[in-house]
Every structure is written in structure tokens, then in C-alpha cells.
Amino acid sequence: MIKKTIETALNEQVKREEFSSRLYLAMASWCEANGYPGAAAFLYRQSDEERMHQLKIVHYINDRGGYATLMPLPAPELNYHNLKEVFEQVMEHERYITSSINDIYELTLNEKDYTTGNFLQWYINEQIEEESSMSKILDKIRLVGDDKAGMFHIDKELEAMSAAPVSSATAAE
Ligand code: OFO
User: Would you write out the chain's pLDDT as a tens digit for each of its 173 residues?
Assistant: First the structure.
């Protein structure tokens, strides 16, 4: 049976992952409406991934005898000046998510809940990957600056990156 402190912390993470999904959906919509179809496809896919991250925690809490609940979410940002700003905010958000996962991991050690600590390892690894790929994308965007041809190329690259299906198998582990 999961401890109340851990259940509460995990439910907070359910909320954060759900917010991530909404945030990336809002960003995807902005990209689609502003001439970046590749970035839009990439962010729609990220939004789906975040939903999988959320579901995985929901199932885990319930499987351990807790109760996964949903909370009210703040409205995501709807207006961006350019693609650089979008990905700067993605980067900032991913760093925030990483630190929230680390905080819960620390709590599991203090509470001696090694099972949940083990469960969180998947998220720790996922955050390493996400931060690294977002930082590479942001570097490229910063490099091309205002060059339209360069930006077109990046958008195509993002489109190619979005082709891989969202792995529900991983989320269902
Ligand atoms: Fe859920 O990994 Fe990004 O936020």
C-alpha cells in the first residue's frame, strides 16, 4: 500500500504531466497556425507522449492501492513571438519537470519507498533524453537566427523527428 505522502506527490506529478500535454498542444496549435507544420507535428507528438507519461503514473498509483485524481490546470500560454521562444519555453518546462521528478525521487528515499523510486527511474532516464533532444533543437534554432531557409530546414527536420509513433507499449510497462 502506497504511503499518503508518496500518493500526494505522485498525484501532483500526474497534474504536471497533464499540464505538459496541454502546453505542448497549445504550442503545436500556434506552430500550425503560424506556418511551421513540422514543428507542429513534433509538438503534437510530444503532447501525446506527455499524456502517456501521465497515464503511466495514474495506473501506478491505483495499482499500489492509492487513488489517482485529477486537479484543475492553469491555462497554457497561447501567444508566442517566434519558434525560438516556443522552444526556449519547452526547454525551461522540461528542466522544471526534471527537478520535480528528482524531488519525488528524494522523497521516496526519505520514505524508504524503493518500489516507487524504482518506478521513477524510467522518468529520470526519459528526462535526460528529452532535455538533450530539446537542447539540440534549440541550439539549431539559435544558430539559424532570422535565416528563412535555415528555419524551413529545421521545420522539415522536426517533421521527420515526429514520424516515430508514440510508444504506448513503453507507457503501459
Ligand atoms: Fe513528461 O516528460 Fe517531458 O515533461
Answer: 999 999 999 999 999 999 999 999 999 999 999 999 999 999 999 999 999 999 999 999 999 999 999 999 999 999 999 999 999 999 999 999 999 999 999 999 999 999 999 999 999 999 999 999 999 999 999 999 989 999 999 999 999 999 977 765 444 34
Q: Output the domain CATH number for residue 97.
A: 1.20.1260.10
* Closest atom of ligand 1 to CA, residue 20: 4
For residue 44, which of 14, 58, 64, 24 has the smallest C-alpha distance? 24
Residues spanned by the domain of 87: 4-171
Name the residue with the closest Cα to ligand 1, atom 1. Answer: 50
Rounded to whole angstroms, how far apart are CA atoms 33 and 101?
A: 33
Domain count, the chain: 1
- AA identity, residue 5: T
